[in-house]
Records
---
Amino acid sequence: MSLAEPALQAPAFTHQRVDGAARVEFNAVSGTSRLADLYQRAPCRLLFPNVESTEPPQAVLLTTSGGLTGGDRLDVALRVGPNARATLTTQAAEKIYRALPGGGDVDIAVKIDVADGAYAEWLAQETIVFDGARLRREFVADLSAGAALLATESIVFGRSAMNETLRTGFVRDRWRIRRDGRLIFADALHLDGDIAALRASPFAFGDATACGTLIYSAHEAPRMLDDVRAWSSAHRLVAHATTRDSLLIVRFLAAQASDLRAAVISIAGRIRHKAFGLAQKLPQVWHC
C-alpha cells in the first residue's frame, strides 16, 4: 500500500516557516524486513544506515532546519507490515526555540501503525524546549492484536550547560495508543504560561530539568515489570514503572538531562534484548 503524500498547509504567517513530512513503510519479504515505501519533504530527511544482520532495518530522521520555532510543522509516520521489524530513531536532540509573539506553536505529529506479528521501535532522542517556546506534540500508535511497540520520548526544560531554563511558554505532549482498535493508553502533559511556577508546584517536577516516558506494548510486557524496576534503581533519577493490559509504562524525572539519557539507553536496550534477542543498546546515533 502506498503512503499518501501529506497535504501542505497554507502559510499562516509572514515569516518563513517549515512544513516537513516523512513517511516510511517496512514489509517482510521472504522472512526479511525491507523498505517498502518512502516519502520525505524538507526539512525532514530519512537516512538508512547499515546495521547488523540481526537488527531490524533502521531509519534515522533528521531535520535540516537546525531546530524548530513557532509556526513550524512536522508530520512523521511509520508503518510496519505483518511479521516485519523496523526501528525509527532521530539523529540528535530536537531543539524548540522561542516563538515570536503571535507566531503559533511548533506542531509535531508522529503516527505509528504496526501489523500482526510485527515489532516497531520509535526511539526519539531528547526534545530541548527553550524559554518562550511553544510546542504541541502528539504521538499516536495503532497496534494490531499481535503487534509489539517500544517507544520513548523525553523533554528537557532548557539547556542547563548554557544556564538556560524553560520559564515561560507552552508545552502540550499528547499520547494515544490503540490495540486492535481499542484505546489502551491516553496521556497528556500540559504546561502553559508561567512554566517555572508550574514545575515548582507541589507534586510537580521538583528539581528535575528533564522528564521522559518509555512505553513497551506487547502481550508479555507486564512480565518485565520487576526487571525494569530493578534496572531503574541503578540510575540517579526518579523512575516509576507500572503495567496495565499489554502495557509497560516507565516514567522518568531527572535533575540532569544526561542522567535521563543514560537511563533511557540502558532500560530500552535491556527491554529490546530480553524481549526480542536484539542488541542491548540503542542505535549508534544515540552514542555519537
---
Amino acid sequence: MEAQEQTIKQLRRAVERTLGRKMQTNKDFDCLADSIYEKTHAKISTTTLKRIWGYLSEGVTPRRYTLDQLARFIDFADFDAFSASLENGNSPKPSPANADAASSPLPAGEGQGVGHSPSLRGRGGVGLALFLFLFLLLFLFLRPSADTSDNDRILKKGQVFATYDDFLPLFGIDATESQHYQYVPDEEHIVVWSPEYHNPYYHNDGNPDSLMPTITEYYHPEDWPTDSASMAQLAAMHKQGFLTAIKENQVRLCFMKNLVDSNFVFLGAYRVSVTLSDTTKVVWARATDECNLDNISFLNNYRN
C-alpha cells in the first residue's frame, strides 16, 4: 500500500508538470479536469481530483479508472505502465507507442547486396515500390468501413454490468453514498439512474420483453396506510414528483437492476413523457438506445 501511495505521489507530480501548474486552487482543479477531457475524453470530477491530491481528506482509495486516466493524460497506456517506468528506474517519461526497430542503422554491408546501395534503385526497386503502393490503395478501397457499433466507448441497449463499480466510473463518478442516482459531472441535466425493476416503493413498471420502452415510476409502499389523510398525503407527493420531473427536464441514463437477473442492464437514455405522465405517476420514455461516452453532452438534445 505504501509503495502505491509513493507511485501516486509521483503520478501527481508528473501530471502537474504536464499541466504546467501546481494543484492549489479550485481553478487549478477545474483546469486539470478540462485538460484531461480535452486529451482523453474522460470526465473526472474536480471532487475526485481533490481527493487524489489530498485536498479532501475523506480517506477514499482512488479508483483504478481514475489513475488510468491520469496516466493517459501524461501519455502512458495506463497506471501499470506508469508504475513500471518507475520500477525500471526511469524518470516518468512515456515510451514511444510504436518503437521502430529499423530506426537504428545497419552495420556496414549488412542487408545489402554486393555493389548495391541500401536504398531502392533501378527498375526492380521502382517496380516493388509501385506494387506496394497499388496494394495499399486496393486494401484501403476494399476493406469494410468502420462500424461505430463496435466502438467500446458507445454504450448500447442490452449491455449487462455486474455492479455499480462496473459502470459508474465510465462517467467519472465516484459514488460513496447514493449509487442509484448520480449526476454526470459537469452536466446539470443528465443523470445516471439505476432503478430496481418492480421496486417495492417506486415500482418502476414496464415491459421487460422489449427492454422497457417506458418506465412508470410512482411512490407507493405496500404498507402505506389507507385512511383518507394518508392517501391525501400520498396524492400530494405524487403531484409534487410530477411537477418536479417536468421542471427539471432531465435525461436519465438507465441501468436497471433485477430486470433479467441480479445484474444491471443498460436500457438507454430516457426523458419524461409529458403525454403519458400525470399527477399520479411519472413515465420515462426511451429517447435513444445508445450513449457515446466521448460525447455525453449530446444527450441534452433529447431533453423536452
---
Amino acid sequence: MIPGCHSVEKISDTHFRADVTIGVGPVKGRYRAEVTLSDLDAPRAVTLGGSAVGVLGFGNGEGRITLTPEHAGTSVRYEYDAAIGGKVASIGGRLLDGAARIIIGQFFAGLARQAGGASAEARPSLTNRFSSLFGRRS
C-alpha cells in the first residue's frame, strides 16, 4: 500500500519504522524512515510525523489527515510541512513538490483499495509547504 516500501516494523501503537525506496527524477535511494502518530481523533483525524535518513540525504515532516463523511463516501483532506537536506535536496529539490503529490496520491489510492472504496482515484484536498534545508522555496 505504501509506494516503495520494503518493510514496516511496528514499534508501538503510535510509532513505526520502515525501509523505503524513494525516487525523484534522477535521484533514487533507500531510506530508513520513522513515523509517529499523534493528536489522534479516531476515526476523524490524525497527525503523522516522520523522518527519513539515507545515503542521499535526509528529510523530516509532519502532516495532518482529516476524514469527513460525504454523500457517497469520505472526503480526505491533508496538510503537510516537510524539509529535506543533503544530496537529494541539491539534485532533486525542484522536483520534490510534484513528486510528493504523486506519492501521497498513490498512498491514498492504495488506502482506498484496501478499505474497499469504489474508486481508487483519491482526490484529496492539499495544502503543503515543502522546503529544502538548502534554502529552497517554501
---
Amino acid sequence: MTLTTMIAAVRKDLHDEDAANYRWTDAVLTRHIEHTVAEFSQALPLEEVATIATTAGSRDIDISSLTTRVIVEAVEYKTGLFPPSYQRFSIWKDVLTILSDDIPDGANAKVYYGKQHTMTTTSTVPLQYDALIALGAAAFALIEWAAYSVNRVNTGGAATPRAYRLEGEARLKQFLSDIKRLGKAGRVRVRQLYTPYDTPVSQSIVMGP
C-alpha cells in the first residue's frame, strides 16, 4: 500500500472522509503513519544483506553505510564457505568489531541486518500488515486530537477529548500487542537461521552469532 492509499485507509477508519471538512490534514496523518511504520520496524524490520570489505589487520568494520539500521543479526566472514562461518561480534555506534580468533585480512564480510521500512509511492511493509499500520496510525491520530482539543470549543461537547483519548488508547494497546507478538515470531524465525552466541543484537554493544 502506498502512502496515499494508506492515508485514505486511515481516514476511513477515523470516519474522516469529508474532503471539505477534514479533521486531520494529509501532513498530520503522514506523520502518524511514519511514526507507526517506525514502531513496526522495531518489531519486524526489513531484512537486508550488505557485503562490506574488511581492513587487513583490523577487527573493526565501518557499518555507517547501513542507514536506518534497526538491528544486526549476523556477520559472515569469510564469505563463500559451507557451512557459513558466522562470527561473534560487538557494535559501538557505527563500528562493528569481529571478536573471533582470526583477524580479518581485507576479504569481504556479509552483514545480515534489519532496517526501517518505508512507505512512500511504494512500500516495503508486507501487504498482510497494512491493516496493522492503519490501526496504529489511527490510534496516534486519535490521541493527538484528544490532546489538541482539550479546553477548545468542539461540536461533540466536553466529553469529546476523553472519548477520543480512550478510543485512541484502546487502538494503541491492540497495535502494540500485535507488534510485540510479531517481534517474538520474528526472533524465532531468525534464530532458526543463525545460532545465537549470547544475547540478541542491538545498536549498543551486543554479542552476535
